[in-house]
Write a structure and sequence with these properties.
This protein has helices spanning 3-13, 24-36, 48-53, 68-71, 73-80, 83-93, 115-121, 267-273, 300-310; strands at 15-21, 98-107, 126-128, 141-149, 162-168, 179-182, 196-200, 205-209, 215-223, 229-234, 239-241, 250-258. With 313 residues, the protein is an alpha+beta fold. The protein has one domain (3-310): q2cbj1_9rhob like domain (Jelly Rolls), CATH 2.60.120. Strands 1, 2, 3, 4, 5, 6, 7, 8, 9, 10, 11 and 12 form a twelve-stranded mixed sheet that branches. A hairpin with a 5-residue loop joins strand 8 and strand 9. It is globular, with a radius of gyration of 19 Å. The protein starts with a helix and ends with a helix.
């Protein structure tokens, strides 16, 4: 691996797509095991009466004791042990890098979602469908689109000394809820969600505003690719997805890795030295109530990109 190219790309762009893939056959083997445990379709969801009888918004994501990744750990070793990925992480975080978190993520096709639920979640910036999924299936995180966000959103007060690794387990095209990444958005550091973004329709870039009057324009990159595509991004890089418009789910692996030794200078420190903004926040979001329910109705990635698809200016 060309580590100098990795440093440049992550410092300038905030993300890096590895020049290679996990073997597609290995990805298919993981997918087969994931799909064996449930029927992916409308059957994943509670009915309206069952949800209303006991609405729960917190504690619905995978966790120790209820995480399919842990159950399939031997199968996903092919990803964790990939030579190129390990080289990348060792350079960025040190050879003793820390494995912080892991889970499967599933993008849900629009036509699977019950009509009663569509009306409730329309316009939400973060449509984590965990509250509405049957409890026995909450060992995966299910999304129906998610607005531009930083992964440090889930780690208040933590230093931005970690990266996300995202692996597509099957081919992802424009209709499969590909990740949308805002190039260079990490350079303002950690900012509160929802972020101040405005689509510039003449350039199809986003104007990003942060504290102190700082502004920049960010190109929106759609990450598409074959099974086994691996992307790495900084915890302050803005990214999101639109709802899955395809006829099947989009299942991926999401892993977080961090620097373990604070006294050692490694690649992530080079990246962070270029950031002109905070590397941590005590308050990372303002879109949820105390019980975890959504209180804001605004979604930049959907409104902006939908307008582009209609040719509006």
């Amino acid at each position: 691996m060309d580590t100098s190219e990795l440093d440049v790309r992550l410092s300038k762009d905030g993300f890096y797509v590895l020049p290679g893939t996990i073997q597609p056959a290995a990805c298919q083997g993981i997918l087969d095991k994931v799909r064996r445990g449930r029927r992916f379709g409308p059957e994943l969801f509670l009915d309206e009466a069952s949800f209303d009888a006991n609405p729960i918004y917190k504690g619905v994501n995978p966790r120790p004791g209820r995480n399919l990744f842990d159950t399939l750990h031997d199968d996903v070793r092919v990803v964790l042990d990939d030579v190129m990925l390990r080289s990348c992480l060792s350079h960025l975080l040190g050879e003793d890098y820390e494995h912080i978190h892991h889970k499967f993520v599933c993008g849900i096709p629009e036509h699977w979602i019950p009509q009663w639920l569509r009306q409730r979640i329309y316009g939400n910036p973060v449509n984590n469908l965990g509250p509405y999924v049957r409890p026995e299936y909450r060992d995966i995180t299910y999304f129906y689109g998610i607005d531009f966000h930083q992964d440090i959103i889930d780690w208040p007060d933590r230093l931005a000394d970690f990266v996300t690794v995202y692996v597509y387990l099957h081919p992802v095209s424009a209709s499969d809820a590909p990740l949308h990444i805002l190039r260079g958005s990490h350079l303002f550091g950690a900012t509160e969600f929802p972020h101040r973004l405005t689509l510039q329709r003449d350039t199809q870039e986003y104007r990003y505003e942060a504290a102190g009057g700082r502004q920049c324009s960010c190109e929106c990159v759609k990450l598409m690719g074959p099974a086994g595509t691996v992307a790495v991004w900084h915890s302050a890089t803005l990214h999101g997805t639109q709802p899955d418009k395809g006829d099947h789910e989009r299942i991926s692996l999401r892993l977080l890795f961090g620097k373990r030794n604070p006294g050692r200078q490694v690649g992530i420190d080079v990246v962070n030295d270029a950031i002109q903004g905070p590397l941590s926040l005590s308050r990372t979001r303002r879109d949820l109530s105390a019980d975890g329910a959504a209180v804001l109705r605004a979604n930049v990635i959907n409104s902006g990109l939908s307008a582009l698809s209609r040719g509006e200016s």
